[in-house]
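As a warm-up, study this chain.
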Amino acid sequence: MDRAGSGSDVVQYARRLHRSLALPRLFTFRRIRSLAGLWLGVAPAIAAQAEQTARPPVLTVRGVEEAGTRYRLVPDGRRTRDTTSWTVARHLVDRSRGLALQVMISVSRGDTAVDSVLFNARTLVPVWEHAHGPQSWDVAFGTARITGHVSSSGSADQPIDVEIPGFAYSSTMDNTVVCALPLRPGYAVVLPFWDGDHLEMDTVRVPALGNNSAGPWVVQLVEPYATETLWIDRASRRLLRHVYVNPRTGSREHVEWSAP
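Now compare it with the structure written out below.
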């Protein structure tokens, strides 16, 4: 079973359903002028050390099938055990074209949301993403733009037309992408992720210290509001452990999962 889709990619999706973002703010990312600016969520010092690319990296995808694995977010050091749980299923739907479908059902604070992504099984680049819940959107991924519409809490649809730097991934699959990257000590890359209502640039890096042994890869995924650490088996590329840290508050959470 491929567990690379576990972790806070789906946690973030459930969380952003509860963000109090005004709709006008959601559509400020109209033109991408740089891949390394703070306004894109990448610290200049980090971005300067990371590779930036207009094409998807060559990935090592060790299977995309996942038959409804159940996940839950566990806060560390707090009495409240669970605030979010979710189930992920992925299946090939068109072998001749190499297309797969991921369906994620999440429950957070009593709200249920369903997110579906049709994607290329080799590159993990989406064709489209549909989400329905407190926040809903339907978007199509091109090589130059993401287009579609989004609505929040029953509001009228708002159009989406965002320029992208050649490609973009879905943030609901960020850990799947990270597990398939050409990891090596010192590796760093800035990648574009569509986060439901805006484009986000995240940095993946493999610190040289601690990654020269035969143990699992220890990889950091640096996002605008979080830093994740992922332990990835070198041979199978399966996710072994996943920790999520909020740098602003220092809060720490980990993800647990179980097979169906």
